[in-house]
Structures are given as structure tokens and as C-alpha cells.
Amino acid sequence: MGSSSDDTGLARLAATVERLRGELREARRAADERALVELAKGILVERLRCGPAQAAEQIAAIAARTGRSEVELAADVVNRAADDSIADAARAAGP
Known about the structure:
Blueprint: H1 3-48, H2 52-66, H3 70-93
Helix pairs in contact: 1-2, 1-3, 2-3
């Protein structure tokens, strides 16, 4: 076995590892985005007293109307809900 063959095998292995790392990064990013949208849907279900399908429709419609992605809109919904919760807790704690 020559070193050229070994080098080729190692290069292919390194390329495969790098490709798999990229796929893993993409899968994690997609999972994080899905989780964020699901969290936003849950917030809308609670606040609007609607079902999950209606909450998903609201997110999709507002995102389309405003030219934003559903993930961006979901992040805003979650951030707004977090801000509201912090403000409520501060008010409840009093001066």
C-alpha cells in the first residue's frame, strides 16, 4: 500500500467528517427554529385562546404580511412574552 493511497483515503475520510459536521449543524439549527416556532404557537394558544392550528396560521399570515420569516416572528412573540412575564413579576414584587 502506497502513501498516495493512504493520503487519498484520509482526504476522503476528512471530507466525509466535515460534511457530516455541516449536516449536524444544519439539523441542530432547524430543530432550534422548530422549537422556537412551537413555543411561540404555545404562547398564542394561551393568549388568544385558540388551537395550535390557528396559532400556526396566525404566525404564517403575519410573517407573510410583514415580509419576515416565521422564525423571526416567533422570536419576537417569545421575547415579548418574556418581557411581559418579567414586568408582571416586578409589579407583583412591589416597590
